[in-house]
DNA sequence: CTGAATATGATTGACTTTGACTGAAAATGG
DNA sequence: CCATTTTCAGTCAAAGTCAATCATATTCAG
């Protein structure tokens, strides 16, 4: 049985019954436990299901055709997910984390499962997910920005200052340039990001290859203040140039 | 049986009958006493139920709607909507409002359309709706409470103090009693509500008739500090008694 | 056809859940 | 008020479940 066929079968089993044991799936698919477990972890990382001890519980989102849902996991999605996975690998037990608003950082959340970390965020959509994964969560104060549902403004900046982080994960950086540093379109968001960085021991920037060499409107910080996580597709010249200034992780897909 | 299945079963048992013995749950689930007790403590920690000696009493809100429960919620829904409409009628152009977490106050949001108000809230689910209705919104800081997705704790209390409100709308008041005042199950939430009231010119409490004459665990304030909005179904004695102390709006359905 | 990348299944040791047992705490009934 | 019964939290060993590793099998490109 081909991988995708098998996964579709798992999903339909989950649609019938919210919770299905691994053993049961093995019987249905005639695949080994190992394989099923792999499928389940993958499906969870793609945020299609939520796993529980003893079986996997279907969760996230509607019942629109599963085949398309799997294939719709675009290259971009996969890219973001890989970056998030790498980012999560730096996280240790007991860490206090800041998750910046935006979809890139949201992808990190499934990897935090059972890690006993404390998360502070300014992203409203993050909160629901964090609750689902049962992670201790704090939200900073701030004005809600339309579109991204991020908390920004003076209140946000002041509010962040009341926390200290072991690690800070930033997304939404639209420009990464060796001399001109990290930039983003909205100055209000830039302030929030900058303040979060100042409160953190170490900051990771999650960025796709298209952002390198670009410059946006509002400056956030120097390149040397952060570690960068991205995927292949970035020009060699950028890698060598940036790696003189800081750590840059380039992930194969 | 998988943990999650078992817990769902416990919750549905609790929905039928407010109080169920451990022994009874054991029979239903075919699990040992130890396991059930563990489930109960966990569910309590997750703030989904409240335990009592001899069995556990269901508390905080819905989990999965049964057909019967759907009808119940639609009836409740209409009630809540009417209350919200009345509450909204007090709101004037340019007001700054505090919307407490909880479904009652969320119903107010659609009535705010095109009213040019500023809203501050501690309810995460509120934010998404407020964005949709294009309302200027601020979120207070705080720790995320599982289940209700409300922001609570010291940070929340401190954060509220940085705002001033024309009107404050409270939901989630489980007890309204002429002498013993307004009460709610969670002391942390009570502090937040109390602080919000202090920052506001006037406070409205949204409550359904079942809450009158009841007393819950944590005190929020005196009855005289708030205006009450409810629907018919409340006993006459309560109305006359309370109307000596404050304004009480009783809405026909 | 060969080698690299990927998928699979068996095995292991770590971790989680479970149920029986224990003594403490709470309700019950004189 | 005390003694009895019931209910409860904590501990422990056993069973179940899981992630990690490895060796094998399959796929695909060159």
From TrEMBL, chains A, B:
<dbReference type="Pfam" id="PF00455">
    <property type="entry name" value="DeoRC"/>
</dbReference>
<dbReference type="InterPro" id="IPR036390">
    <property type="entry name" value="WH_DNA-bd_sf"/>
</dbReference>
<feature type="domain" description="HTH deoR-type">
    <location>
        <begin position="3"/>
        <end position="58"/>
    </location>
</feature>
<keyword id="KW-0804">Transcription</keyword>
<dbReference type="Pfam" id="PF08220">
    <property type="entry name" value="HTH_DeoR"/>
</dbReference>
<dbReference type="InterPro" id="IPR001034">
    <property type="entry name" value="DeoR_HTH"/>
</dbReference>
<dbReference type="InterPro" id="IPR050313">
    <property type="entry name" value="Carb_Metab_HTH_regulators"/>
</dbReference>
<protein>
    <submittedName>
        <fullName>Transcriptional repressor</fullName>
    </submittedName>
</protein>
<dbReference type="InterPro" id="IPR037171">
    <property type="entry name" value="NagB/RpiA_transferase-like"/>
</dbReference>
<keyword id="KW-0238">DNA-binding</keyword>
<dbReference type="GO" id="GO:0003677">
    <property type="term" value="F:DNA binding"/>
</dbReference>
<dbReference type="InterPro" id="IPR018356">
    <property type="entry name" value="Tscrpt_reg_HTH_DeoR_CS"/>
</dbReference>
<keyword id="KW-0805">Transcription regulation</keyword>
<dbReference type="GO" id="GO:0003700">
    <property type="term" value="F:DNA-binding transcription factor activity"/>
</dbReference>
<dbReference type="InterPro" id="IPR014036">
    <property type="entry name" value="DeoR-like_C"/>
</dbReference>
<dbReference type="InterPro" id="IPR036388">
    <property type="entry name" value="WH-like_DNA-bd_sf"/>
</dbReference>
């Amino acid at each position: 049985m081909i991988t995708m066929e098998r996964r579709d079968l798992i999903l339909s089993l989950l649609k019938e019954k919210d919770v299905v044991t691994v053993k049961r799936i093995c019987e249905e698919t005639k695949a080994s436990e190992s394989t099923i477990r792999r499928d389940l972890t993958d499906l969870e990382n793609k945020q299609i299901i939520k796993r529980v001890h003893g079986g996997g519980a279907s969760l996230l989102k509607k019942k629109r055709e599963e085949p398309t849902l799997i294939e719709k996991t675009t290259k971009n999605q996969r890219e973001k997910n890989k970056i998030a996975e790498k980012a999560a690998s730096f996280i240790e037990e007991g860490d206090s984390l800041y998750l910046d608003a935006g979809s890139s950082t949201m992808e990190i959340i499934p990897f935090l499962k059972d890690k006993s970390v404390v998360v502070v965020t300014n992203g409203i959509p993050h909160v629901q997910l964090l609750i689902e994964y049962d992670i201790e969560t704090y939200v900073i104060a701030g004005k809600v920005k339309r579109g991204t549902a991020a908390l920004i403004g003076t209140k946000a900046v002041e509010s962040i200052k009341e926390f200290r982080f072991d690690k800070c994960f930033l997304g939404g950086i639209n420009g990464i340039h060796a001399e001109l540093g990290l930039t983003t379109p909205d100055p209000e968001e830039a302030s929030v990001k900058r303040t979060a960085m100042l409160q953190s021991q170490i900051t990771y920037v999650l960025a796709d290859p298209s952002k390198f060499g670009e410059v946006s409107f509002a400056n956030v910080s120097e390149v040397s203040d952060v570690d960068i996580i991205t995927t292949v597709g970035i020009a060699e010249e950028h890698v060598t140039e940036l790696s003189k200034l800081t750590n840059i992780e380039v992930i194969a897909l």
